[in-house]
Each structure stands twice: as C-alpha cells, then as structure tokens.
Amino acid sequence: MSDRYSAEALKGFASALFASTGLESDRADVMADTFLQADLMGFTTHGLNRVASNLHWLQSGASRKRGEPHVLADRGNCFNWDAEFLPGPWVVNLAIDQALARAGEYGVVTATIRRSQHIACLAAYLPKIVQGNCVGILTCSTPAEHTVSPQGSKTALFSANPIAFCAPAGDYPLLFDISMSVTAGGYVSRAAREGNMLPQQYLKDSDGNLSNDPQAFAQGGSILPVGGVDHGYKGAALSAMLEVLSMGLGGYGRGDMVADDDEANSVFLQIIDPSAFGNSENFLRQTRALMQLWEACDSDDDSAVRIPGRRAWQLRKEQLRNGVELYPTIVEDLRGLAESYALDMPPPVN
C-alpha cells in the first residue's frame, strides 16, 4: 500500500509553494484546496499533479498574481468576466461563490469567463456546490488547443472540453466530470511518462491510423472523441455545444488570435437552486429515488453497478479521515518541488 498524507498538510504545503511566488496567501490557499479536492475524489491527473505547471505560470508571469477579473457584463442572474490570465482555480472559485450567493434571489445564475488560466479538475469545484444544496454545471474549453479529431477526420480540431455536473441526492451526490474525448489528455501524458501503451486504441496518428501508443499523439496525432470510431459523431456534437457555451457566450475563442493563450480556458458555469422551482424536498425525493433505483439494478458480474459520484464521494470522506493516497509520480514531483523551494515535504501519516 502506498503512503498516505494528511489532507491539511498537503494543502498547507501546496499553498506555501504558491505563496512563495508572491501570490497572496488567501489566493494560494484557494488554489491549493482546489488541487487537493481533485485527489481526494480520485481525479489524480488534474489535482496536485498540476502544482508544478501552475508554479511555472506564476513565476513566468503567464498567470497574473494580482488584480480582479474584468467585468464585461452583469445582469445579476448572468455575468461575463475576462480573467486576463488570473490563476484558474482562484478565479473560478470566485465566480462560483458569487453565483451561489446570487442563486437564492435569481434561482438560476449563469456565468462565463474568458482567458482564465487553466482551471484543472472540474470535479474539484463541485463539493461546495453540493454543500450549498444546489445543482451545478461546469464546462470549459481551450481556444488555443486542438487535440481531439471529429469522427471521420485525422485533423485535431477540438480541445478536450470536459463537463462536470453535480446534484444533491441523499447520502452522496450525483456527480461526474467527463471529457468529450474518449480518454483525457492527462492519461495520455501519464502513459507517455511511464513508457506504457494505452489500454485501447484511443488515438489516431498523424496519418489517421488508430493507435494505442501515446507517442502517436505526441508526434502530431489526435485523440478520438467520445463514442470512438463508431459513434464519435456524438462526442463531436457535444464538443461543439460546449465550445458554444464557453467560447461563444464568453465572446472569445476560435474566432480570435489565441495562439499565445497556451492552456488558458474559456469557462461556462451554471448554478441552480432547486428551491426556486418548488419545495426542495420534492427535488431530493426524486434524486434519491433515481439513485436508489440505480443501486438496485442487477450487476453484470460480482462488482457493484457504477453510479457517478458514489465512489468519489466515499473516497473523499475516507481520505479526509485516513489520509490521502497519492499517485506515485505525484509524490515524486512534490518531493522535487520541496527540495527546489527549500520546503519540508509533509511526512506520511501511516
């Protein structure tokens, strides 16, 4: 079994790293907590794994350390910000906090953010929405990125375009975070780093041939859309929809000069207060019933039927109590950062 680390100690360590760049301590804390939340729920490619890249952006000036987002439009129930390359985890948390605060008055609050530095794991933002007894929808796209090819093409067009959703549903929420690519780019990068092949042919090489070799992607290939070879038109259609919601409504993306934006995101988020539509207990009665019916479905084998949110929520509770079990390469990277920044790596708790 791998070592476990105190969640609070990991958050403090990551926060100290970010603060060492000159970022204000409260913003550093928000960033650190966001990355931690991802690992708590098992989203290991976009949690603390992204500390190093965010440090680089802060040090190089690619991320703006100070200032507020530029408000482009605000009608109360909807608003649009230009983050102007503020750190993604901080600015998205700020937008969600504002949306949650307004949801009691407006019922539904929708926001877009352009030019947010990379926002990492979308699922990491969902716990606070669930704890606010609201439904949340969050998606982002990357204007400068072309990694996912439409069905029937070898040309990379879309970014990964993840979407996350959460809804209170009793003992655990309905919660998911899925890319519109058949596998996330983080898993392709991890396989390349570890010298492994992908479990299936999730990629096309530059000539359009199917491949499970991550080097095919590194050498000008692309990732298949959700639905794969046979039904990838569905993933491509959803990718287009999410780019309209994020880039289109935000007013910045494919139609602009974005080559220098690197991994900066266009963001769409929507917070829904179920009580605006009637008795919130009626809402919970329906979501609980759905989850109970899902749990009662007969499994194909001896394993439990997979329900989005159950494993992640249970893992989060367990790791907050017993310590976080980090993916081995994350431990390796954090130890390297501890040495480089002359900070003490948190000791294992087991």
From TrEMBL:
Source organism superkingdom: Bacteria
Keyword Oxidoreductase: yes
Keyword presence, DNA-binding: no
SUPFAM superfamilies registered for this protein in UniProt: L-sulfolactate dehydrogenase-like
Record keywords, A-Z: Oxidoreductase
Pfam families with a match to the protein in the record: Ldh_2
InterPro entries named in the record: Mal/L-sulf/L-lact_DH-like_ah (IPR043144), Mal/L-sulf/L-lact_DH-like_NADP (IPR043143), Mal/L-sulfo/L-lacto_DH-like_sf (IPR036111), Malate/L-lactate_DH-like (IPR003767)
Family: Belongs to the LDH2/MDH2 oxidoreductase family.
Name of this chain's protein: Ldh family oxidoreductase
Record organism: Microbulbifer bruguierae
